[in-house]
Amino acid sequence: MKKSFLKSATTKKALTLALVLIATAPVFAQGGATAIANAANDIKEYWDPIKLILKAVGGLVGFIGGLRVYNKWTNGDQDVNKEILGYGGAMIFLIVVPEFVTSFFA
To answer: Is the dihedral of CA 90, 91, 95, 96 positive or negative?
Structure first.
């Protein structure tokens, strides 16, 4: 009889604890909108320097890609067109993505 009483008391305590946690969860969740707004503001603050770095890296990658294409072209390789398309697509991507992200967070 004593074991069933302990099981019953433990079950009641566990259910009470679960009920309290479920009841208080919405109170803690109210800070979610504020946290998202703060994160968006932080991203806006750091985005301009990051965009400048992305464009600098894009310029460097474009320069190296141009040298590779020129090297293949002067050596008479057959896959120059594929190389040009690959680097052209990469450069378009590097130019478009920062502008798209800027318009997304503005």
So the answer is: negative
Distances (CA, A) of 17 to 12, 82, 91, 105: 9, 64, 57, 41
Tokens standing for 81? 């067109």
Length of the chain in terms of residues written: 106
CA end-to-end distance (rounded Å), the chain: 67
pLDDT tens by residue, 29-84: 556 677 778 887 887 888 888 888 888 888 888 888 889 889 988 998 888 888 88
Task: From residue 28, give the alpha-carbon distance in Å to each of 63, 72, 102.
Answer: 51, 61, 31
Would you say 40 and 46 are in contact if contact means Cβ atoms under 8 Å apart? no
